Amino acid sequence: MIELGANRYGKSAIRLVKIVREPGRDRIRDLTVAVALEGEFDAAHTAGDNSLVVATDTMKNTVYALAPEHLTGPIEAFGRVLAEHFLEFPQVEGATISLLEHRWSPLPTDGGPAPYAFLRTGDFTRTAVVAATGESLRVESGVEDLTVMKTTKSAFAGFPRDRYTTLREVDDRIMATKVSATWRYGAADLDWDEVFEGVLRTLLDVLAEHFSPSVQNSIWVMGRAILERHAAVEEIRMVLPNLHHWSVDLSPFGGENRDEIFVATTEPHGLIEATVRRAAG
């Protein structure tokens, strides 16, 4: 017997820019949105029957149509509005809305921040995922492309060695990574901006201050601190590539490297992933 397994469909990479007009200045909301629906769509696969299929073009247009009234605060709130809208279709059993917010800042000028000219900032991208069914609502927030570096207070030693091991043990090194972090909340109604800023501040403060014997340990120390300081967070998952910086041998050029000159590499890189969560019970 052959049967259809789990399936869903939707619209990805919906680009939305909203200019918020305020007295004397503008603000930019720049989002990439994805919509995914699950439900009674088996017939579209097995019988070519599209009578219950919400067109992906409709999904795209819905994002635009709801933005003027509902994209007024954090992306988590907008994602909830979209998810609950799509659940109004009786054949939709689950809706997942994924959002990225790209950051823009006013251009600095001699007279202060420009009110109508902007610079795309590349420090990080804010993310959110809202997944809703008729019985549940799950909200996650996060960051992507948060590139950070510690020039000291990091080490890597005590690892096993075999005939293929060439890496030297070091008790002080550069640690650089591009953080992707996603944290899940236990409640569906929060001050999303306040919690987001608090979690991000904790992550950066702990990363800056603690001594790191490994990237693995850094994930644990940062994740534990976030859960201890922010009761709304149930778990946090982090993905940290180890962006290596290798010391350059200057002796062929008659020089001496006093721990100052490095070559930055992005490939190949180590990739460390872990989830830190509250224990059940």
List the keywords.
globular; 281 residues; 8-stranded antiparallel β-sheet; alpha+beta; two-stranded antiparallel ribbon
Helix segment tally: 5
- Please indicate the percent range of residues in DSSP E strands (runs of 2 or more): 35-45%
What's the total count of β strands? 12
Helicity range: 10-25%
What is the gyration radius calculated from CA atoms?
23 Å
**Strand order of the main beta sheet, please?**
1-2-3-6-7-8-9-12
Kindly name the structural category: alpha+beta
**Topology order in helix (H) and strand (E) letters:** EEHHHEEEEEEHHEEEE
Largest sheet: 8 strands, antiparallel
The average pLDDT score comes to 97
Q: What is the end-to-end distance?
A: 42 Å
Shape: globular
- Residue stretches low in confidence (pLDDT < 50, at least 5 long) are none
